[in-house]
Amino acid sequence: MDKALGLIGLAKKAGKVVCGESAVKDSVRFGKAILVIIAADASDNTTKSITDSCKYYDVKYYILGTKDILGHAVGNHYNAAICITDEGFADSIEKKLQLNFNGGE
User: Fold this and answer.
1) Whole-number Å distance between alpha carbons of 64 and 5
2) Which of 9, 24, 77, 93 to pair with 86, CA 20 to 30 A apart?
3) What angle do CA 12, 62, 71 make, to 5 degrees?
4) Which regions of the chain are under pLDDT 50?
5) What is the 3-state secondary structure of 70-91?
């Protein structure tokens, strides 16, 4: 997970990350979001709202870490949700996350 978080930080520095529930939902709705990451400790309403939008607009999403961890990765105190708006970064992050979920890292 640390490598994925590092890539998220790089994407943030490159201006390819959108933070916050409403901004993430807007990015999904307007076709800018490539990959969405939701904190595992986000509220049920936030999680449902974002995952419903992702399913409707066919955007991949992962539930990962905590609001503190996700926020720290992008330089904030905490974030319930972020999205990646660059395909290259999204692909790299997703590969790292899949390795994590499959026990490879």
Assistant:
1) 10
2) 77
3) 40
4) 104-105
5) HHHHHCCCCCCEEEECCHHHHH
Contact of 54 with 61, CB cutoff 8 Å:
yes
Sheet holding 60-63, edge to edge: 17-19, 81-84, 35-38, 60-63
Look at residue 28 and give its three-state secondary structure. Answer: helix
CATH fold, domain 2-101, is 60s Ribosomal Protein L30; Chain: A; (3.30.1330)
- Whether pTM > 0.85 for this model: the answer is yes
**63-80 pLDDT, tens digit each:** 988 999 998 888 888 899
Q: Which of 77, 75, 68, 69 is nearest to 11 (CA)?
A: 75
